[in-house]
Structure formats: C-alpha cells, structure tokens
Amino acid sequence: MSLQIPNDKIWISELNKDETVRGGFDRDRTVRFYDTTLRDGEQAIGVVFNPDEKFEIARTLSELGVGRIESGFPKVSAEDTEAVKRILEADLTSEIWGFARCVISDIDAHIELGTKQVLVEISTSDLKMQAYGFDRKKVMERLTNAVKHARDNSLRVNFFAVDATRSDTGFLKDVYSTAIETGAEEISVVDTIGACAPEAVEALIHDIASHVGPGIPIHWHGHNDFGLATASAIAAVRGGATWIQGTVNGMGERAGNADICEVALALQCLYDMPVELDLTKARDASRVVKQAGGYQVDGWKPVVGENLYIRESGAVASQFHIPQAIEPYSADIVAAERGIVLGKKSGLASIQLKAEELNLSVSEERYPTILAAIKLLATSEERLVSDEEFRQIVARSQ
Q1: d(C-alpha 178, C-alpha 185), whole Å
Q2: Which pLDDT does position 2 carry in this prediction?
Q3: What are the helix (H) ranges across the chain?
Q4: Which of 16, 111, 192, 314 has the fewest CB atoms inside 10 Å of its own CB, making it the most exposed?
C-alpha cells in the first residue's frame, strides 16, 4: 500500500520537477522495502541483538510498513534460531524471509523452523571467488543445488549475487539465468562493498532487467562506503529495481547499508515515486534499533536526527514562523516536533520564541539583556542553555 505525502508538505526546488530529473521512473508501481537490519545491520561492529530485541525490532519494522523482514541466519547461534522462530510465530503483517548461503544445511535450518521464503547467497565476482577458494563452476553447482533444494521443499527463493557490481557481467547474467531456471522467482543485484557509482547502478539494473525479463522482480542491495547508498538506491529504481534492501539508520558493516527511510523520503519528495513505508513511524523505529544496538546517530542525520527541526541560530529563528523558509519538508512527514534551543548563536527572535513556548511574559525591551546573559553562559561553558536556566535569567532581568 502506497502512502502518499501531501504536496503542501513538501517544499523542494522547482528544478526537481524537470523531466531530466524525474524522467525514467515507472510511477505505476510502488517501491517496496526489504529490511535486513536483523542480519546485515547486526554486522555493524560491536552490535549484538538478543532474541527479545530482535523480536521487538521486527514488530517495529512491520509497523513501519516494511514489506519484507529478513529474520536472520539461524545457523549463527541458538539465540538467532530462537529469534527467527519467535518472529515467524508472531503473525506480523510483513513477509518474513530467511537468509542462507548456498549451503544445504543453511536452508534446512529454515525449513525446520517453518520459514516459507528464503534469500540464498553466493559470491559471483572473480575476486570474491578467489578469496573463498572456489571457481565459476563451483558457484554454478552450489547455487543450482541450493535453489533446487529450497524449491523441492516449497520455499520461495530470491537469489542474491554477492559482489554483483564487480562481477563479470556475462557471467553474472549466466548466474541469474541458472538461478531462475532452477526455480528462483526473484533476484538481488548486490553492491557488497559500495563500489558502484549511481550512474553505473542504473545502467547495470537496466541491463539485468532486460536480460531476466519483466516477470522477475529485481532487488537492489547497496552499501554506503562512498556516501552514495541513497543515491544508488534511487538510481536502481530508475533502472527498474522493484525492491530496495537496506536497514534502519543505515547501520551495517563498514559504512553501513542504504537507509530505507532516507531512500523512501527522497523517492517520494524529490522524484514523486510511490513507496510502501510509513515515515511517521521512522523515528520510533530508529529509537528501538538504536537502543537495542547500543549506539547513537548524528543529530543532523536525515529523517531521524534529533536536531532536524530544532533551531539555535538567531537568523534562522527569525524565520521560524514560516517552516517552508528553513525546511525542505514538513516535520509532520516524520512526526517530529519543531522547537527552539538557546545558545551562543541565538538572537532576539530566539528569546521571543522561547518565552512564548514556556508561557513567560517578557517585555521586548528586556530581550537584549537576556540574550547577552545567554550568550555569556553558553560561550563560557560551551553548551546550550536549559529552559530552567532561561527562566532564571528572565527572572534576574526584571
């Protein structure tokens, strides 16, 4: 189900509406999201989700509107097995997919738990094959056996070509053809180490889509090593990808994965593409995952950053009454609260807004004295001034 953002909540440049920007997208289909926070996201250094946390994250992802949740890799540990089992039994709205290497025992672990659909992976680049100690013949043999085994046990299969963007294109096409002929119903084009520019992503997806035909859904899985994961995901959609794989907060190994909420926001607001994600739930999902993972994100991070709608600068505060002047999209889209904080960079308008927020009666002639006290405190202690300190400064100014 597509959740359309009202146009009056989006305040982007008119230049974005040019056909050179918005052309090439198929707006008759809705972009959907396959979340891999519980598997690829957990590969972030030092992050360990216990079964209770994985269950809570899965529940939150379902509320966010994620079409598919990758439940995990039960072969890793007994705890992962328990988490997958609980998620499968939860009867969530999202489809639950399993992750497996092209290894029969990996697939059997999912069969035993009752998984109905599985993503199976194997490396397809010569570099990765060399690192693992096998060749192209072995890749074909392993993927054929794995896909056949999954299909023989009534599992739906998405074939996931690891390091696809650095693979020989001819061999990559042969791999996808073999996977589909063996029974895979969907394929994933994977930029395992974020080594592909957005323009190259679009071209590759278009080429693969033409090769496999319109009946095979294509997933894009990209990483953020050059800070281009969101741009690459958008390019993949323009190229013909049906699904975007990624994580909450963009977490993951090295520089992380594509952030599904960032991709959803950009596709809707900048490219007018329908997406299946409820961005009013994005900040809740971010909070749950951060808490479980024991980390924080930057206050200025798109969609979920705590400071996106909080203003300290006096020059910006003077425009606060017209959100369109200082923000590209409404806080309502991501269910955020707008507000003013006081510090070194505050101005006279900041004093007025904060006084109104706290229901304090402050005459305009006192603003300069109050502002000077705020700047002195903020500068000397190199921090913001709290609301309580503001009340005290106001009281002393009388």
Answers
A1: 12
A2: 57
A3: 19-22, 51-64, 78-89, 104-113, 126-132, 136-152, 169-182, 198-212, 229-239, 260-271, 282-293, 314-317, 323-326, 348-357, 367-381, 387-396
A4: 16
Residue whose token pair is 């079964």: 51
Phi (first) and psi of residue 264, to 5 degrees? -60, -45
Query: Per DSSP, what are the bridge partners of residue 234?
Result: none
Say if residue 350 is in the same domain as residue 245: no
| Domain-located, residue 1 | no
Between CA 96 and CA 108 the distance in angstroms is: 16
**Co-location of 195 and 324 in the same domain:** no
Length of the chain: 398
Asked whether the CA dihedral 285, 289, 292, 297 is positive or negative, the reply is negative
Domain around 352 = 310-396
Residue 38 sits in the same domain as residue 167? yes
The per-residue pLDDT for 1 is 53
Structure-token pair, residue 135: 């060749």
Query: Same structural domain for residues 225 and 323?
Result: no
Same-domain status, 36 and 184: yes
- Residues 261 and 285 sit within 8 Å (Cβ to Cβ): yes
pLDDT under 50: residue ranges of the chain = none
Q: Are residues 374 and 244 in the same domain?
A: no
Report if residue 283 sits inside a domain. yes
Per the structure block, which two tokens stand in for 233?
């995901």
Q: What are the φ and ψ backbone dihedral angles of 391, each rounded to 5 degrees? A: -60, -45
Rounded to whole angstroms, the Cα distance separating 118 from 158 reads 6
CA 70, CA 83: separation in Å to the nearest integer? 11
Establish if 144 belongs to a structural domain. yes
Query: Among 240, 266, 293, which residue terminates a domain?
Result: 293
- What per-residue confidence (pLDDT) applies to 265? 98
Dihedral sign for Cα atoms in the order 13, 15, 20, 23: positive
Q: What is the pLDDT of residue 194?
A: 97
- Both tokens of 293, joined, read 């993972």
Q: Which residues pair with 329 in a beta bridge?
A: 10
- Boundary residue ending a domain (293, 320, 338): 293
Of 224, 291, 206, the closest CA to residue 26 belongs to 206
Q: What pTM does this model have? A: 0.95
241 found inside a domain: yes
CA 286, CA 357: separation in Å to the nearest integer? 27
Same domain, residue pair 147 and 216: yes
User: At residue 109, what is the residue type?
Assistant: A
The answer to whether 227 touches 208, Cβ cutoff 8 Å, is: no
